[in-house]
Write a structure and sequence with these properties.
mainly alpha
Length: 111
């Protein structure tokens, strides 16, 4: 599993617990099944960007918090056009995009 999925899985659980929510309560807030949240937190299920945004909103955190980059807010990252473009990328392209974001983050933080 990619590192970003591991980070998301761990952070969804972390922020859900901090919010005092059960897996069932989060599932209800997202209108998904309890099993999906369980699988997501165990790293057994991926997550689409739109769902990640809903999770962030339900937990009152940013997408950046969930993926481990606090500088990125869900408002800046998720636009309908960007979400559509990202959803059409292959897994390989998503991995490459993730690496590019990580490189950009390192470059920006070294300024």
């Amino acid at each position: 599993m990619d590192e970003i999925y591991k980070m998301v899985s761990a952070n969804v659980r972390k922020y859900r617990v901090q919010a005092g929510m059960t897996q069932q309560q989060l599932a209800d807030a997202l209108d998904v099944g309890y099993a999906y949240i369980s699988k997501l937190e165990r790293g057994r299920s991926g997550v689409k960007l739109g769902t990640l945004n809903k999770i962030a909103e339900a937990l009152s955190v940013s997408i950046g918090d969930l993926v481990g980059t606090r500088q990125v807010s869900s408002r800046h990252l998720v636009g309908k056009g960007l979400e559509r473009e990202i959803s059409q990328l292959s897994r390989g392209d998503l991995n490459q995009l993730s690496r590019l974001f990580q490189q950009a983050k390192r470059l920006l933080s070294s300024r």
